[in-house]
Specification:
This protein is an alpha/beta fold and 240 residues long. It has one domain: Decaprenyl diphosphate synthase-like (Undecaprenyl pyrophosphate synthetase). The protein is 47% helix and 15% strand. The protein is built from eight helices and six strands, in the order H-E-H-H-E-H-E-H-E-H-H-E-E-H. The relative contact order is 0.19. Bound molecules: 3-methylbut-3-enyl trihydrogen diphosphate (2 copies) and magnesium ion. The site of one 3-methylbut-3-enyl trihydrogen diphosphate has 11 residues, from strand 2.
Length: 240
């Protein structure tokens, strides 16, 4: 009860989502290959996960690879896939130990069978964990999601024309079904755009933009974003 009260006072967001950006620039500034920026960025994911658990955030999600990112040079795409695969292998134990539920959301058809295999293994092994839900968006785009939801809905409607689909029902067709909409959306590296990320789901999210490049974004930066969130006045169109 006391903890609950404290959390209400501190206004901890239930779901924090992060567009991790600036890895390439971080590496370039150091005269390194872009890939080294992605490698350094993995430590930032770890740091934010620790901070999220400490602060009582229940859902932490990361935009790791967009549909559009398939258009990057082949070498960068394959090293990103390899890095994600190896990071999952490495963190598997930690998710189990720390009580973290692991979920991947995105277009599975473009991911290889080895990648899908490890994703399924970790999702299965952690499905009953409840301390934190950690979501990775891989091969994801907001328009892809809305379109695949609309197709599923159309098929259902053809079978049940009497069905009246509400906004909540439509949310259940999205690839993010069951995951609450982000309360706070963070984007690093100074870019102030959504880049085809969660389009439907960010209708009322609070946005936080920081010039910090993703590999430099650590616990203190995460906590600073939560502090800023706590000051926001969410009105949802109403008058307060
Ligand atoms: C974010 O960093 C990682 C991914 C999009 C996969 P970038 O690779 O976009 O880095 P910049 O924006 O080029 O610096
Ligand atoms: C958005 O970053 C995608 C991810 C973080 C996975 P990008 O670097 O691809 O976005 P743009 O091209 O700057 O909009
Ligand atoms: Mg970028």
């Amino acid at each position: 009860m006391t903890k609950l009260l404290m959390e209400t006072e501190k206004r901890i967001p239930t779901h924090v989502s992060i567009i991790m950006d600036g890895n390439g620039r971080w590496a370039r500034e150091r005269g390194m290959e872009r890939t080294m920026g992605h490698v350094a960025g993995v430590e930032s994911v770890r740091a934010c996960t620790v901070a999220a658990i400490e602060e009582g955030v229940k859902y932490l999600s990361f935009f790791a690879f967009s549909e559009e990112n398939w258009n990057r040079p082949e070498g960068e795409v394959s090293s990103l896939m390899k890095l994600m695969f190896e990071s999952m292998q490495k963190e598997f134990e930690m998710f189990v130990r720390e009580g973290v539920r692991f979920i991947v959301v995105g277009d599975r058809e473009k991911l290889g069978s080895a990648m899908c295999g490890i994703i399924d293994n970790i999702m299965e092994a952690t499905k009953n964990n409840s301390k934190l839900t950690f979501v990775l968006f891989i091969s994801y785009s907001g328009k892809w999601d809305i379109l695949q939801a609309a197709k599923k809905m159309a098929a259902d409607m053809a079978a049940h024309p009497e069905k009246n689909v509400s906004e909540a029902d439509f949310g259940n067709y999205l690839a993010t079904a069951g995951i609450p909409d982000p309360d706070l959306l963070i984007r690093t590296s100074g870019e102030q755009r959504i880049s085809n990320y969660l389009l439907w789901q960010t209708a009322y999210s609070e946005f936080y933009f920081t010039p910090v490049l993703w590999p430099d974004f650590r616990e203190a930066d995460f906590k600073a974003a939560l502090e800023e969130y706590a000051k926001r006045d969410r009105r949802y169109g109403k008058v307060k």
